[in-house]
């Protein structure tokens, strides 16, 4: 990182006296020509403003702090605006003998009033007058505003009397807050002083509780709009949780309850300890630096730290790669640690408010309401008591006497469903050093922690409290290593620790039966799981190997063993947890990238899992892991695939330990297919030929009604020229299910995929079947660009797509329509390395081809076309995606119906697929000018 620069005096950047002298000279040179005077003045002020901003930018890039930069930019703006005021009132509209009504004061309000500005921040000004506006005052204000707009400022302004300011402040908390921060720039001093006195006496006095309640409701609403978690991986630096506005809210409250003359005096109050003041300034400094870099990089008031900007801001702030940790992830981890610290500051400040203003509700500072002193309720746990519906402690000495109390505190809070009192939370954060190696191995501490983890009432809330206080990472160091860690890709919406705690909370919800509708299978098997501790430990530790040596899974297994052994877990459980962590991605890989109807796939998975208990544990972990990644990642299609794999594997285990797994699956399939054929023929005798021609695996994939519909569609295809298609919205799969019956031929799948892509469809899953008579039945699961089932809002879109698929099935050309970029623009930030894996061992009858690269419309068609051009027919296709990266797997056979065994042909196929993926990467959307791509994380 660049060496920190010392602050520079403002006069070395903008000399106010020299600036005014130049303006006066320009006015005298063009005396009598108002237009020329104005033009020269604007030019001089623009030069001063540009010079000031460029010096601030250069200093920032060379190590100046964020607060210093914000203050320097504010100081430069002050000099320009006050010089303009002087020019206006001396050379343009001079009042030689001003009347009482022509007095005027110019005040900075809002953020500008705090004397901190980002490069492209709005400036808020208050023109304060004593009485009704006079023509002279109106002329001054109008002249200044037009000049400020010409200088490029975005100005928020008001012209009011003191009386109006007081009245409006009582009615509107936004106005009240802006005047709270008012700072006189120039003009009548007495007028500004009168406003401050009347504002304190008539608005602030006796309304502290009302103001706090309003500001914290405003904060809650703002965070709900920006994203409720402070660990969203594209955070809003200004408005997001843990961002600048949270710090501003604390300052407003402190300043309102303890009025000061200057914003920086807030830090001198007794309400902040020296430790908290340092943390406050550290957070302000870092966030202001990030925000300034964002503005300078984009040339506009950009507040969101988007993926494409993160690598550039990391570079500008001096972060570099370190080992396997790329610069962007190191920078973002620092960002989230600061956001976490802001949360701790909020709680600490709340504790100080409690000493002066008591509250009744256990909702923390966010419910700062009038009320009497909360009642103290004794508990049976020495040193702890209930304080107004929250858990509190007798004092920090209970942790010093017995550090295990740092763990007991959270267990008691969970048992009694209590929030932590801010005093208790603050005491915990100040005593983290007491959690030593001895405490981590203390039997009582480990028992309390495991009970909370595996049997807690509200595990997500309580573990989040532990994490926010720093206890969880201190007690479980393996978890501490991933606190605030982000992965630079679009797949994950949260940091690793937040994702993990959400996954643990989801398992708790499943155990309580709260997710029956969303995850019926996982909820139904929870009572059958014998070892809940192993389940919750594995979920808590499943991502602790990220960034570790040997890969995520191996490193995770090592860290899981280390953590479990320290917790005193018995050997068999240690090995089970380590196995679950090492294999936590296996079930999703098999379900989404392999053909579950292939007996070899199920048998291979069963050999890995070995027994029903592991199968149950793995299913629950897989469901929670996928769902906790972020909004929209889990869908019904993934659930359906997991259920099919689970049921098929469970059938293998029912066959007995000594039996042949593949033979078991085949027998199960044959029996199910025979029963389904009988049912189908009984319902539709005309379907007898169709039923006999279709493979056994087909019948296990669909409901009896689906089988009837498919048979009818196949007959329709034969009547109307060789192809027929029908679509419907499948709510369970969260996709449109589109079935195409057509005569099989090489390239059919590619033509169908092109038709779907050209009409704005995104294929999330596909099943491919071919009858012994050479008729193909392809089933596509399709979403629109928003992730909703295609046609759910517009049924005509489904009919239009079905018509296009029928035409494609007959071999007619497809009209390719231009697609909007939409989400593709976000992927521009990532450099994605294409990969191709060709596997002849995964299936008995087909070669499995897995291709991975940048996701885009038409990629599936391009890959399918390449396979067809290499003389291969697609037996099944498995489409998966991880944000910006697509991972598509195909089961393919040669024209002779066998595997692709020829080494030269395998190499040629791999080369062709990589070429298609590389062309795709070369055609990726461009980043913003001046920005470079950074390597996308492949961690899941």
TrEMBL record:
Its cofactor is Mg(2+). Residues 930-940 have a biased composition (Basic residues). Keywords: Hydrolase, Magnesium, Multifunctional enzyme, Nucleotidyltransferase, Repeat, Transferase. It catalyses: [protein-PII]-L-tyrosine + UTP = [protein-PII]-uridylyl-L-tyrosine + diphosphate; [protein-PII]-uridylyl-L-tyrosine + H2O = [protein-PII]-L-tyrosine + UMP + H(+). Uridylyltransferase (UTase) activity is inhibited by glutamine, while glutamine activates uridylyl-removing (UR) activity. NCBIfam families: PRK05092.1, UTase_glnD. This is Bifunctional uridylyltransferase/uridylyl-removing enzyme. It comes from Caulobacter sp. 602-2. The gene is glnD.
């Amino acid at each position: 990182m660049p060496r920190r620069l010392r602050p520079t005096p403002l006069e070395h950047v903008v000399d106010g006296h020299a600036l005014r002298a130049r303006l006066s000279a320009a006015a005298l040179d063009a005396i009598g020509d108002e237009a020329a005077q104005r033009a020269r003045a604007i030019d001089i002020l623009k030069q001063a403003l540009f010079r000031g901003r460029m010096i601030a930018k250069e200093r920032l890039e060379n190590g100046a702090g964020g607060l210093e930069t914000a203050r320097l930019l504010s100081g430069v703006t002050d000099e320009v605006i006050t010089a303009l005021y002087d020019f206006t009132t001396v050379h343009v509209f001079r009042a030689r003998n001003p009347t009482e009504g022509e007095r005027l004061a110019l005040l900075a309000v809002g953020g500008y009033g705090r004397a901190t500005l980002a490069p492209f921040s709005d400036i808020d000004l208050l023109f304060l007058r004593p009485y009704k506006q006079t023509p002279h005052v109106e002329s001054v204000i109008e002249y200044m505003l037009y000049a400020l707009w010409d200088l490029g400022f975005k100005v928020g302004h008001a012209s009011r009397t003191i009386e109006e300011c007081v009245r409006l402040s009582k009615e509107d908390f936004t106005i009240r807050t802006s005047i709270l921060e008012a700072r006189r720039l120039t003009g009548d001093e007495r007028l500004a002083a009168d406003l401050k006195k009347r504002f304190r006496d008539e608005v602030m006095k006796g309304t502290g509780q009302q103001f706090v309640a309003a500001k914290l409701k405003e904060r809650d609403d703002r965070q709900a709009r920006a994203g409720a978690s402070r660990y969203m991986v594209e955070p809003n630096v200004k408005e997001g949780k843990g961002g600048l506005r949270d710090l501003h809210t604390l300052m407003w409250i402190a300043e309102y309850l303890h009025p000061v003359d200057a914003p920086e005096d807030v830090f001198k109050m007794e309400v902040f300890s020296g430790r908290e003041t340092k943390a406050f300034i550290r957070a302000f400094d870092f966030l202001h630096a990030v925000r300034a870099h964002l503005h300078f990089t984009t040339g506009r008031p950009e507040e969101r730290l988007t993926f494409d900007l993160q690598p550039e801001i990391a570079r500008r702030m001096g972060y570099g790669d370190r080992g396997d940790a790329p610069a962007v992830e190191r920078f973002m981890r620092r960002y989230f640690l600061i956001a976490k610290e802001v949360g701790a500051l909020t709680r600490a400040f709340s504790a100080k408010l409690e000493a002066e203003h008591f509250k009744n509700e256990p909702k923390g500072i966010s419910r700062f309401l009038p009320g009497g002193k909360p009642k103290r309720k004794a508990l049976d746990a020495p040193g702890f008591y209930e304080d107004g519906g929250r858990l509190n402690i007798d004092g920090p000495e209970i942790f010093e006497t017995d550090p295990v109390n740092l763990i007991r505190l959270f267990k008691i809070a969970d048992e009694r469903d209590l929030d932590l009192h801010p005093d208790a939370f603050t005491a915990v954060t100040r005593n983290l050093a007491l959690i030593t190696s001895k405490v981590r191995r203390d039997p009582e501490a480990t028992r309390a922690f495991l009970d909370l983890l595996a049997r807690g009432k509200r595990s997500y809330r309580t573990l989040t409290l532990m994490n926010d206080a720093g206890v969880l990472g201190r007690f479980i160091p393996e978890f501490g290593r991933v606190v605030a860690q982000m992965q630079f890709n679009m797949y994950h919406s949260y940091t690793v620790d937040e994702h993990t705690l959400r996954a643990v909370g989801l398992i708790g919800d499943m155990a309580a039966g709260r997710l029956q509708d969303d995850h019926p299978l996982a909820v139904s098997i929870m009572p059958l799981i014998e070892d809940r501790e192993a389940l919750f430990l594995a979920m808590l530790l499943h991502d602790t190997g990220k960034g570790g040596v040997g890969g995520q899974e191996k490193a995770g297994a090592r860290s899981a063993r280390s953590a479990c052994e320290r917790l005193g877990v018995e050997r068999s459980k240690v090995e089970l947890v380590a196995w679950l962590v090492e294999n936590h991605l296996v079930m999703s890989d098999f379900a989404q990238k392999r053909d579950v109807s292939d007996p070899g796939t199920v048998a291979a998975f069963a050999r890995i899992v070995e027994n029903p208990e592991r199968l149950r544990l793995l299913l629950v972990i897989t469901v929670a892991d996928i769902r906790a990644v972020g909004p929209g990642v889990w869908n019904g299609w993934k659930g359906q695939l997991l259920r099919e794999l689970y049921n098929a594997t469970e059938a293998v285990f029912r066959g007995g330990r000594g039996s042949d797994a593949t033979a078991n699956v085949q027998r199960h399939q044959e029996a199910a297919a025979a029963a389904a054929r009988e049912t189908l023929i009984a319902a539709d005798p005309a379907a007898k030929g169709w039923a006999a021609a279709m493979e056994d695996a087909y019948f296990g994939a669909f409901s009896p009604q689906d089988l009837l519909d498919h048979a009818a569609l196949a007959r329709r295809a034969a009547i109307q020229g060789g192809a027929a298609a029908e679509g419907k919205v499948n709510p369970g799969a969260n996709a449109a299910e589109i079935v195409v019956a057509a005569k099989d031929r090489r390239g059919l799948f590619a033509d169908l995929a092109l038709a779907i892509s050209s009409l704005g469809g995104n294929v999330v899953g596909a099943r491919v079947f071919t009858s012994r008579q050479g008729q193909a039945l392809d089933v596509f699961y399709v979403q629109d660009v928003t992730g909703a089932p295609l046609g759910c809002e517009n049924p005509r879109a489904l009919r239009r797509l079905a018509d296009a698929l029928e035409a494609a099935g007959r071999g007619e050309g497809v009209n390719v329509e231009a697609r909007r970029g939409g989400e593709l623009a976000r992927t521009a930030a990532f450099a994605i390395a294409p990969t191709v894996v060709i596997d002849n061992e995964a299936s008995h009858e087909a070669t499995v081809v897995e291709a991975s690269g940048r996701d885009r419309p038409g990629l599936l068609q391009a890959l399918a076309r390449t396979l067809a051009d290499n003389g291969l027919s697609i037996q099944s296709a498995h489409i998966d995606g991880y944000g910006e990266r697509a991972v598509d797997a195909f089961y393919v056979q040669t024209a002779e119906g066998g595997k692709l065994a020829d080494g030269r042909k395998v190499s040629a196929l791999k080369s062709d697929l990589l070429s298609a993926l590389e062309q795709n990467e070369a055609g990726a959307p461009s980043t913003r000018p001046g920005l470079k791509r950074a390597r996308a994380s492949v961690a899941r």
